[in-house]
Amino acid sequence: MSIFHDALLNIGAKIRQLLPAQPCVLCGHMSHDGLWCAACDRTLPTLATSHCPACALPTPGGELCGRCLKRPPLFTHTTAAYAYAYPLDKLVQAMKYRERLALTHAFAGRLAQRIDRLPDYVIAMPLHPAKLRERGFNQSLLIAAAIARELNLELLPHACRRVRDTPPQSALPWKERKKNVRDAFCCDMDLGGKHVALVDDVLTTGSSLNALASAVRKRGAADVSAWVVARTLPHK
After folding, report:
1. Does the predicted model carry a pTM greater than 0.85?
2. For residue 120, which of 188, 194, 191 has the smallest C-alpha distance?
3. Which CATH number fits domain 47-231: 3.30.1150, 3.40.50, 3.90.1200, 2.60.40?
């Protein structure tokens, strides 16, 4: 490593120390590194580099997993920043249920660092109007908007709609989730020949993303990627 690189690292560290400190959202100690401190950042469960390119489940050599070989999802590539495990799961829950919306920007920044295939359009997982009125915000749209700004991509906030107010996926057994979101979405825009990235907070069974991918495929999307903050992994 050159002395110039060392000097840049030192300058970067000094600049961070000059920034206003704030309590780390995880441990409470003062942080100059953003919403969570550098020590807590090292505890966050980053996703393994060897994983299925389609659904992001870990695989020994980064090949397609058995599930995707048997039933390929309608999205062909998944990018995830983290595994959905402690303490990352607590941050996601704070974002969704305690309105810690600043976390959407932090998550978007980490996710943007992992994206290597830029699409034509970015579409967020839509909420049903009733759910949006109840919650007051769509965290997936906030994340998608931040990524689109950072990567200079076109966000389509109104291209897709959720037309059925379904029970939350997290409240259902895995086997019932596919049926729950069947025909739950529609797309109102011609996407003929385009590569579309779908943004959501957490990928568990993939049923919601697959249903949304079905809607954009029906309107001509030629390639569909999934971008998620976190991927739920099977229990060992």
Report:
1. yes
2. 194
3. 3.40.50
